[in-house]
Backbone:
């Protein structure tokens, strides 16, 4: 099998990484496994046969779009695939989605907690429709987030609401559908043709998480780690320990991601 594709990582410009990582560690009460630099991510990838990583950016305010886009263009290689970000409330969101597509990027990242929105707000549907019309992938943080109060702004019912209105949207739900909301994932998402990546889920393995892994269509599961917040090698080891079988492993570790990226 060719190299693994990690569909959920983060990194920052070298000159900002130390300050940003300390701030995020303090806010979340968590210690990162890497220093947030691209060079460290590449070293990690090299150590465990990860061929490509998607870098998920988060624009916490509209004014960050230009700097994120510029940096994304600088770091883009065959191995590093940046997904820029816009703030969904940006009055120029529609135009900026077009710019992202025109610049040759394959997707966008949203994080409702850091960007302070509810994912199925009516005013966001033109934004989702534009992402869909441009044939871009949307990686959306879903479920709760350990750094924020447990307010239901990105839960499985809201995911279903989005996809009912924009059925062609290439939406990837993170953390096995919705972080620490896996009972609701089982109720609303399990078995449906909805993409989910697996980061920060295997560390919380229980019967519900196992049920999702073994009963969701394997064509709709993607390998992801959320590096630098988790260790890529450890996530890979936890995944291999599930013993899903060679065919499912190939789909999840690489083939699904290749198919999805090539569809853009």
Residues:
């Amino acid at each position: 099998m060719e190299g693994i594709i990690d569909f959920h990582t983060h990194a920052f410009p070298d000159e900002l990484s130390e300050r940003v990582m300390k701030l995020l560690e303090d806010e979340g009460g968590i210690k990162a496994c890497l220093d947030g630099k691209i060079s460290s991510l590449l070293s990690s990838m090299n150590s465990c046969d990860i061929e490509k990583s998607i870098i998920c950016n988060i624009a916490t305010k509209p004014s960050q779009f230009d700097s994120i886009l510029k940096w994304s263009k600088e770091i883009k290689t065959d191995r590093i695939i940046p997904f820029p970000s816009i703030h969904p409330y940006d009055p120029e969101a529609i135009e900026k989605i077009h710019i992202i597509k025109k610049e040759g990027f394959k997707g966008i990242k949203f994080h409702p907690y850091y960007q302070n929105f509810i994912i199925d707000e009516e005013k966001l549907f033109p934004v989702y429709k534009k992402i869909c019309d441009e044939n871009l992938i949307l990686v959306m943080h879903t479920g709760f987030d350990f750094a924020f109060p447990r307010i239901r702004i990105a839960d499985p019912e809201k995911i279903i609401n989005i996809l009912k209105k924009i059925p062609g949207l290439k939406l990837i739900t993170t953390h096995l559908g919705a972080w620490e909301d896996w009972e609701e994932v089982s109720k609303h998402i399990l078995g449906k043709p909805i993409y989910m990546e697996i980061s920060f889920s295997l560390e919380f393995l229980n019967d519900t998480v196992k049920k999702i892994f073994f009963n969701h269509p394997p064509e709709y599961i993607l390998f992801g780690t959320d590096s630098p917040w988790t260790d890529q090698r450890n996530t890979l080891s936890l995944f291999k320990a599930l013993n899903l079988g060679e065919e499912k492993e190939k789909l999840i570790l690489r083939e699904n991601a290749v198919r999805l990226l090539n569809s853009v």
Remarks:
- Residues 2 and 82 are 21 Å apart (CA to CA).
- The chain has a mean pLDDT of 96.
- The chain has one domain: 4-262.
